[in-house]
Amino acid sequence: QVQLVESGGGVVQPGRSLRLSCAASGFTFSHYSLYWVRQAPGKGLDWVTLISYDGSNKYYADSVKGRFTISRDNSKNTLYLQMNSLSAEDTAVYYCARSSFEYYYYHGMDVWGQGTTVTVSS
Amino acid sequence: QAVVTQEPSLTVPPGGTVTLTCGSSTGAVTSGHYPYWFQQKPGQAPRTLISDTSNKHSWTPARFSGSLLGGKAALTLSGAQLEDEAEYYCLLSYSAAWVFGGGTKLTVL
Fold first, then answer.
1. Helix then strand then coil, % of chain B, to nearest 5
2. Read out DSSP for B5-67?
3. What is the mean predicted confidence (pLDDT) over B30-38?
4. Inter-chain contact B98–A47, Cβ cutoff 8 Å?
5. Which of A95, A98, B17, B52 is at 20 to 30 A from A71, Cα to Cα?
6. How far apart are CA A62 and CA A13, in angstroms?
7. Which B positions 25-44 lie with beta carbon below 8 A of chain A?
8. What is the pLDDT of residues B15-26, one digit of tens each?
């Protein structure tokens, strides 16, 4: 079945970096665009970034632009999120999610991972 | 950046019908915003209920339906069950920027 499994979360000091991974299975990874969405404790969902199916297009929320980088390795069926210059405001559960349609990415997401928790604290 | 608005909370009796709405600060919501609806229960990841205004997934209970209503996207629950108590989020697409609504806490009581 279609599955997304995030990893790499943890506790990190302000100003430091962290890299999240999302391992995919059960579908043709290279055909789908992928999202990162986060949820701060007790708050709502917040779109972070998207990468197109072939990695040629990347979009970021203003709150993370210039600090976060999304990438993917289609040979390893894995999505990444490199997070630099972290602050307390980045504390959240980070979810990866698959775009609903092959190749298109203006639509939303259909399948979600279980999330990985990032805590930025000294 | 656009702001997407939802009712903060709604209550529906078991077996009742309720409509949640999703508005945009930029004007009327259209099919071109590709409205999505998600359900999230405490401690769980979100689950997609409705895609592209009204399309259901194989796992979407038949009692949920999506539409456009009065310039907003709408999620209607007909015949509410206790298990439908959850937070519901909508998502709108703005040409390569995606904005979630603040969520609606639905109580079945």
1. 5, 50, 40
2. EE-SEEEE-TT-EEEEEEEETTB---GGG--EEEEE-TTS--EEEEETTTEEPTTS-TTEEEE
3. 97
4. yes
5. B52
6. 22
7. 34, 36, 38, 40
8. 999 999 999 999
Reported as a pLDDT band with limits 50, 70 and 90, residue A104 is confident
Residues B64-97: pLDDT tens digits? 999 999 999 999 999 999 999 999 999 999 988 9
Record the tokens describing residue A92, joined without a space: 């959240």
Q: Which helix (H) or strand (E) holds A48?
A: strand A45-51
B97 contacts on A by Cβ (under 8 Å): 47, 59, 61
CB contact under 8 A, A106 and B99: no
